[in-house]
Specification:
The protein has one domain. The protein is built from four helices and three strands. A three-stranded antiparallel beta sheet has the order 2-1-3. Strand 1 and strand 2 form a beta hairpin. The longest helix is centred in the N-terminal third of the chain and has 31 residues. The termini are far apart.
Length: 116
């Protein structure tokens, strides 16, 4: 029953948010013609690693710079990225992970993969 709730809720959420997400995906892409998504490795149930989908708010390959800070004043955040973060739009793209069964709507937040 919970899985059905997660699937239906995430599908409805994605359908409702898709116009906004598509606009922001375009703006992220037009900035540098790179993927509008950041796939963050996370540890899920039973220690299984999966890629959590986030709408990219920083420059491409920002995670390879060696800087761990994601604070608001970070210079790697793009102009459109500030809006994405302000309105938490990067969280809505994670509904994809819920829809395909990698995450749940309610439950513990997946842990960051150590050793990256």
């Amino acid at each position: 029953m919970k899985r059905l709730f997660d699937m239906v809720s995430s599908l409805i959420g994605l359908m409702i948010m898709s116009p906004v997400l598509l606009v922001f995906m375009f703006f992220v892409w037009i900035h540098d013609f790179r993927s509008p998504f950041y796939i963050a490795p996370r540890v899920g149930r039973y220690g299984k690693i999966f890629g959590m989908v986030k709408l990219r708010s920083m420059i491409a390959d920002a995670d390879k710079s060696g800087v761990n800070s994601t604070a608001a004043g970070n210079v790697r955040i793009t102009r459109v990225g500030h809006l994405i973060r302000r309105y938490k739009l990067d969280e809505f793209s994670q509904l994809w992970n819920v829809l395909i069964g990698q995450m749940n709507l309610v439950g513990p937040r997946p842990q960051v993969q150590k050793g990256r």
